[in-house]
Design brief:
The chain has about 500 residues and is of the alpha/beta class. It contains 18 helices and 22 strands. Bound molecules: S-adenosylmethionine.
C-alpha cells in the first residue's frame, strides 16, 4: 500500500496523523498525543515489572509503545485505521513482536488479540465526554457497575471505561500506567473509578501535573498519571506527587494519602501539598459551611437559549404578552461586579444594549392560549423542531421552563475569572451558566452578603472546584455548598 508518510522523511507518526486527520476527526476520536517525556516516564513504570506483554488500547501513532521498546510483545489497537498503519510501521521498524490492529477497546464482544490477560497496559485513553458517546458505550456504565460492584455514573467520560476495562484485562501482578485528565480525582463521576482502583490495585504513584501546565497542546486540562499494580491484597494508600512538565517530568513534592483518608468521595487534589498549604490559611475562622445557611441550585436549563431567551427586539417583533416573560440573566456578562447588586437599572441597560434579557415563562397549556401572540411564538418553536430537544421533550408543556423562584444571589460558576456573588435585587431568573443561592429559612439574605462577598471565597472555590488546567475553575452546586464560611454571629435556623 502507498505510504501515508508523504511528508518530510523524519516525520513522526503523530505528526503524520495530525496532518492527515482533520481537527474535527481528531477531536471526535479524542486523538491527542502524549508528549515524549510523559511517554518515557510511563514506559519506565511498566518496564519495572519486566512484562512479557504490553498493550496500548488506543495506540494513536504509537508513542507510548515506542517508549516501551521492543522487550515485551507490544499490542495495540485503535479505531482509526490510519493510526494503526502508522503505529505498526514505526513499531515494526524498532523490532520485536508487534500486534497492532484496528479495533474498538470498548467493544467487549470483539477482543482482537490472542492474549487475553496482560502483564502491562499503557494508555492515554481518548477523552470523549459522555454526551458524545454512543448509546452502546454509555451502557458500559451499567456493565462495569455490575462487574466491579461500584456505581459507575453514566456521566463518565470514555477514559473511565478504558481504565476499568484495563483493570479487568490485567493479570494479578500486572501494571498499568495511564495518563488522563485529573478531573476524576475530584468529581462525582470519578468516585467509582477511584474505588475500583483502590480495591483492585496497589496505587504505586499518582502524579498530578500542576494546574498551570497544559500537557497537551490545545486541550485544557490538568493531567494525572496513574501507575498501579493489580493485586489480590491492597493497602488502599495513595502516594500522591505534584509534578511539572519540562524536558522531563520534574517531581516537585509528594505526600501519601493514608488508607483511612483516601476516600473515593473526597477531592484528592485538595490533598496535594501545595494546594493544602494554600487552602489552610484561608480556612482560619471558617468553621461552618455554606450548606448551613443556604440552598444552591443550577440556573434554568432551557433546552435552547436562542428560543427561550429573547431580546427586547424579539419581544416587540412577536408582540409577546408581558405576562409570559420574566427578566433573566444568561451569564456572567449580564452581572455586575462581585459584591454588587443586580438592580433593575443594570438589567435595563443590558436589555437596551440588545442582550437576551427576557425569559419565556409560560406554563399554560396551548388550549388556554388561543389568540395570543405567545401561542404563535410557541408554534414557531414547534416548527423549528424544539419539542424534541433534550430538556424540552421531557417537560409538560414542552415550553414550560423550570418554575424556580428568583434567587437571592447569583454565582458565576464557570469562567476564567474569579467566582462572583451578586445580590439579585431585581428578582430575575438565571440560566444554567449561573448558580442560584437562596438564604435558608429564617435567614435574611442581606445577612449573608458579607459571608458571600468575602474575597477569599473565589480563591477557596478555585481550589475546591473542579480541576481544569489554566486556572479555569468550574464549581458544582455541591462544591459551593461545601464552601467553608465564617459562622453568622446570630443564632440561626439551619437551611432546609
Ligand atoms: C489520546 S489518543 C492517544 C494516542 C496514543 N496512545 C498516545 O499516547 O499518543 C487516544 C487514541 O484512542 C483512539 N480511540 C478512540 N476511541 C477508541 C476506542 N473506542 N477504541 C480504541 N481506540 C480508540 C483514538 O483514535 C486515539 O488515537
Amino acid at each position: 500500500m502507498p505510504s501515508l508518510l508523504s511528508g518530510p522523511v523524519a516525520e513522526l507518526p503523530e505528526q503524520a496523523l495530525a496532518r492527515i486527520n482533520s481537527r474535527e476527526k481528531r477531536y471526535r476520536l479524542g486523538q491527542f498525543f502524549t508528549p515524549e517525556p510523559i511517554a518515557e516516564l510511563m514506559a519506565e513504570a511498566v518496564l519495572e515489572i519486566d512484562p512479557e506483554t504490553c498493550l496500548d488500547p488506543g495506540v494513536g501513532g504509537g508513542v507510548l509503545l515506542r517508549a516501551v521498546g521492543c522487550g515485551p510483545a507490544r499490542l495495540g489497537c485503535d479505531v482509526d485505521p490510519a493510526a494503526v498503519v502508522l503505529a505498526r510501521d514505526a513499531l515494526e521498524a524498532q523490532g520485536g513482536e508487534v500486534d497492532v490492529v484496528v479495533g474498538d477497546f470498548l467493544d467487549l464482544d470483539r477482543w482482537p488479540f490472542e492474549v487475553d490477560e496482560l502483564d502491562a497496559i499503557i494508555a492515554n485513553p481518548p477523552y470523549i465526554r459522555h454526551h458524545n458517546l454512543s448509546r452502546g458505550q454509555k451502557a458500559l456504565a451499567k456493565h462495569y457497575s455490575r462487574s466491579f460492584g461500584v456505581s459507575v455514573s453514566s456521566l463518565s467520560g470514555s477514559y473511565v471505561y478504558f481504565f476499568l476495562e484495563a483493570i479487568r484485562r490485567l493479570r494479578f501482578g500486572g501494571r498499568l500506567a495511564f495518563i488522563t485528565p485529573a478531573e476524576f480525582l475530584d468529581v462525582r463521576y470519578g468516585h467509582a473509578l477511584k474505588e475500583a482502583l483502590l480495591s483492585w490495585c496497589e496505587i504505586d504513584e499518582l502524579i498530578v501535573l500542576e494546574m498551570d501546565e497544559l500537557a497537551f497542546e490545545g486541550v485544557l486540562t490538568t493531567s494525572a498519571i496513574t501507575i498501579a499494580t493489580k493485586r489480590e491484597r491492597v493497602s488502599r494508600r495513595v502516594p500522591l506527587t505534584e509534578a511539572r512538565l519540562s524536558d522531563a517530568i520534574v517531581r516537585v513534592r509528594g505526600t501519601v494519602i493514608e488508607s483511612g483518608e483516601a476516600l473515593p468521595e473526597r477531592p484528592w487534589t485538595a490533598l496535594l501539598p501545595s494546594r493544602a498549604e494554600r487552602i489552610l490559611p484561608l480556612l482560619a475562622g471558617r468553621s461552618a459551611t455554606l450548606a448551613d445557611y443556604a440552598r444552591v441550585r443550577r440556573g434554568i436549563a432551557t433546552g435552547d437559549n436562542s428560543f427561550f431567551c429573547l431580546t427586547q427586539e424579539d419581544v416587540d417583533g412577536w408582540g409577546i404578552e408581558p405576562r409570559f416573560l420574566v427578566p433573566a440573566v444568561a451569564g456572567s456578562k449580564d452581572l455586575p461586579e462581585n459584591g454588587s447588586v443586580l438592580t433593575r437599572e443594570f438589567w435595563r441597560a443590558r436589555k437596551d444594549a440588545g442582550a437576551r434579557a427576557w425569559l419565556l415563562f409560560c406554563h399554560e397549556p396551548k388550549s388556554a392560549l388561543a389568540g395570543t401572540a405567545v401561542l404563535r411564538y410557541i408554534e414557531h418553536g414547534e416548527a423549528l423542531g424544539l419539542t424534541e430537544r433534550f430538556n424540552c421533550r421531557t417537560r409538560k408543556p414542552w415550553y414550560g421552563v423550570e418554575r424556580v423562584p428568583p434567587a437571592d444571589f447569583f454565582v458565576t460558576y464557570m469562567s476564567r475569572q474569579r467566582a462572583r456573588f451578586v445580590r439579585n435585587e431585581l428578582g430575575a431568573r438565571c440560566l444554567s451558566a449561573l448558580l442560584n443561592v437562596w438564604a435558608g429559612d429564617g435567614i435574611d439574605p442581606d445577612e449573608l452578603r458579607p459571608m458571600l462577598e468575602d474575597q477569599a471565597n473565589a480563591r477557596l472555590l478555585r481550589e475546591f472546584g473542579r480541576t481544569y488546567g489554566g486556572g479555569l475553575g468550574k464549581i458544582e452546586p455541591a462544591d459551593l455548598l461545601r464552601l467553608p464560611v465564617r459562622p453568622l454571629a446570630a443564632p440561626l435556623s439551619r437551611a432546609a
